[in-house]
Design brief:
Elements (H helix, E strand, L loop, with lengths): L5 E3 L20 E3 L20 E5 L8 H5 L6 E5 L2
InterPro entries: LRR_dom_sf, LRR_domain-containing
Keywords: Leucine-rich repeat, Repeat
Length: about 80
Amino acid sequence: MRGMHTLWLAGNQLQVLPSELSQCTQLTALLVDRNDLQSLPRSITALPNLHTLSVDRKTFALLDPAVLTFCTALPTFDILGL
């Protein structure tokens, strides 16, 4: 999974993202729309190549902006439905 560039997890009723996600250092796009996540895990701050993060308003109960602060390569953060 370390060489993966896009991870599309939309519509899977996920409640958490695995901490192992931080090992996907080549990941450039993470699409987690239509899930039941409580928050973004801090493990995404270890993704230096992440350029696209796509969620929708139903995805998160809580969105901690501090997590996004550490995603310095992230020019695109898409929250659908707001």
